[in-house]
Amino acid sequence: MSVSSSRKITQILDAELDKLVTLPVIWLTLISTFIINLALTIAFTSAALQWGAGTQSILKTGLASMGYLQAGFIILGILATCSEYTGGQIRTTLTTIPWRGVQLFTKHMALAIMTIPVAFIIAASGVLYAFMMMRDTAVAIEIDKLIKTLVGVTGYLTLTTILSAAIGAFLRRTTSALMVLLSYYFVVSPLVRDFLPSSKNYFPDTAGSSMYMLPSSDEINVLTPMQGTGVLLLWTLLFIIVAIAFYRKRDA
Amino acid sequence: MRAFNAELSKLFSLPGIWLAFLIGAFAPAIIATLDSMAEKEDIIAGASTRLSEVGYIGLGLGVQGIIILGVLAVSSEYLTESSESGGGNQITTSLTVISSRFHFLLAKAGAVTVISVFLSIVAIITTVSATNLILGEYAPAFEASKLIGAVCYWTFTALLAFGITILTKSGIIPLAVLMINSSVVTVSYLLTKVTKLAFYLPDMAGLDMFMFTSDRFHTPFTGGLIMFAWVAVLFIVAAIVFHRRDVAS
Amino acid sequence: MLTINNLVKHRGTQEILSGISFTARPGRVTGFLGPNGAGKSSTLRILLGLDRATSGSALIDGKPFAELHNPLATVGAALDGFGAHRMRTGRAHLRWIARAAGLSRSRVEEVLEIVGLTHAAGKRVGNYSLGMGRRLGMAAALLGDPKILVLDEPVNGLDPEGIRWIRTFLRERATSGKTVLLSSHLMGELAETVDDVVIIHHGKVVADGTLEEVISNHSTLEEAFFALTSESAGGVV
């Protein structure tokens, strides 16, 4: 029994990966995220070179576009779950895989498997560009710090994707999910950060950002990367659980 | 006129429009309230450098609601996310009801314009009253010309969102691009650090209509004109594309 | 064997199904009839575990759908609409289903051949005609070579050739001992395909029996249908 059920999980995981890979919108999102991020990094790098050559950190410049880059991954997450509701695919999914909790959880796993390498490549490409442009002028880069930061960025982007996917699964409509998430990440959160600086440690995006933020002189990073990961992970799990609970209860 | 009424009723029957209304009409007031409270002491002490901006920040951000409005007006025609639909494009129905595509676009744009103007006036009223309530006699004077600028900014933004969505047919790209770009630190603003040309982007030019910050580039009038030019060009392109395109594709 | 037992479904304050009971037996084609909005699709959706019943049960070989060990090989279902994402190709759609059930890729090509969709398998589902969409739905239903077929309006949108194909195909399935349940409101078509008939109206079963029993002293199935469902004529479109 346990052998067959573990095989079944692998099959479902394969199927969910297949669904993601054969969806052109997913590729479109990833490719445009890559291109736009690179374009932004080029802009940031040239700005950094114009002003403070020699004082800029390569890592900071290479990751300056993070705020915008996460939008691409938010969209990725939403598309992965909301695409089920296009053309009534959800009915096919549930008649093929009627174990709803397992199915939705596996979908998030498949999404994570896909996101991790992509997030790493995209983040690394930005840093690499900044490195190539600034290596003569900027302060030297430490390799272990670089790897730590890139791992942090990858983790942050992956968790953000999964969190968005869970919210997408809960709301079921691409546009609604997009409106909710974008207005949170780009309007509410920056405002809350300004007006209530102390709340910074509790929200998924601000706490999560300590996963890759370099300790800077002008502000005290209260959370360590591990603590930041913990907070973001808790939020993500919470949303997955809520999404699964609703998914199991409601009519498809 | 009948087409215009039809478009209005279509818009009001969309559930998402209420979120647009909520954000558009009340978010600016809330932001203005928070901002006023934060700045209150400085303002009373006469030390605030941001007195002239209080309230307008909210109006700059409340435009998110209007973006949703412009995008939804078009994307709802193409949306097929109902579980029962085997391709329920409302656009097919719309274009058999109003056969002239140009009239259809015009009616829709008209409906979006009217709602945006209405919404921006509501937002201004709530924002001004919120600011006055909190700052009392210290509240900045809201000049009519700036407020007209804000109304224009909202309406043009709605039409930009509308035009882009006609081209993309899906709400994802315009929502993402425009909402991110109207966030606290906009991409356009960053681009102005790289090239002066970025001041001619629609949102940067449009903001000059009512946000009088130190690094202002255009006069309110030319700012409005530049933004209007963007809207006009986008509309011509969208109209041509929409006219030529097969509905089903 | 499909057993629907005293099924009740409320949606909001509306009662969509008020105690439906019937069975669909192996070796027979059971036709499930009713006017629009009578509750046909709701019944099928509950049977397939998509919707939840307020009370009562819909069992497949004595088990609810979600407890089936291998759903795709037990029940093949084709509901209304395409059931596929518009941007995926037909082949990709069938492949992920096959993968979820642990079936081989060659099985995908087989079912594409059976439903006559091989030439269009590389096209995006969004570009399919209604009939092609139905064929894709049938292909998905047949992937696991199931003992039971549940089809919602299978001939809707099919061309004459497709309708004839469905008819002979379903007869063959039944003759080989399999269970077929199909809903439709095309009386003439149904009368030539089914063995048993269940007619529902306003969420209640108004007739249940073999084709001959249900027609009884009416001249055709259509006459019988209208006699049974027209007491509130005009109320249902």
Key traits:
heterotrimer, A: 252 residues, mainly alpha, 0% strand, globular, C: 237 residues, alpha/beta, Rossmann fold, three-stranded antiparallel sheet, 9 helices
Overview of the structural elements:
Chain C: Belongs to the ABC transporter superfamily. Chain C: GO terms for molecular function: ATP binding; ATP hydrolysis activity. The complex is a heterotrimer of chains A (252), B (249) and C (237). Chain A is an all-alpha fold and 252 residues long. Chain A is 77% helix and 0% strand. Chain A has 10 helices and no strands. The radius of gyration of chain A is 19 Å and the shape is globular. The two termini of chain A are 28 Å apart. Chain B has 249 residues and is an all-alpha fold. Chain B has one domain (2-244). Chain B has 11 helices and no strands. Chain B has helices at 2-12, 16-44, 56-61, 63-78, 90-97, 101-135, 144-168, 172-181, 187-194, 202-207, 220-244. The two termini of chain B are 29 Å apart. Helix content of chain C is 35%, strand content 25%. Chain C has one domain (2-229): P-loop containing nucleotide triphosphate hydrolases (Rossmann fold, 3-Layer(aba) Sandwich). In chain C, the strands form 2 sheets. Chain C has a 6-stranded mixed sheet with strand order 5-6-7-3-8-9, sandwiched between helices. The longest helix of chain C has 16 residues, at 160-175. Mean pLDDT of chain C is 89; it is low at 233-237. The interface between A and B is medium-sized, with 33 and 37 residues.
- For the record, give the distance between the C-alpha atoms at the N and C termini of chain B, rounded to a whole number: 29 Å
Q: Report the CATH C-level class of chain C.
A: Alpha Beta
What does the main sheet of chain B amount to?
A: none
Report the principal-axis shape of chain B: globular
Quaternary structure classification: heterotrimer
Keywords (chain B): Membrane, Transmembrane, Transmembrane helix
Organism (chain B): Pseudogracilibacillus auburnensis
Protein name (chain B): ABC-2 type transport system permease protein
Protein name (chain A): ABC-2 family transporter
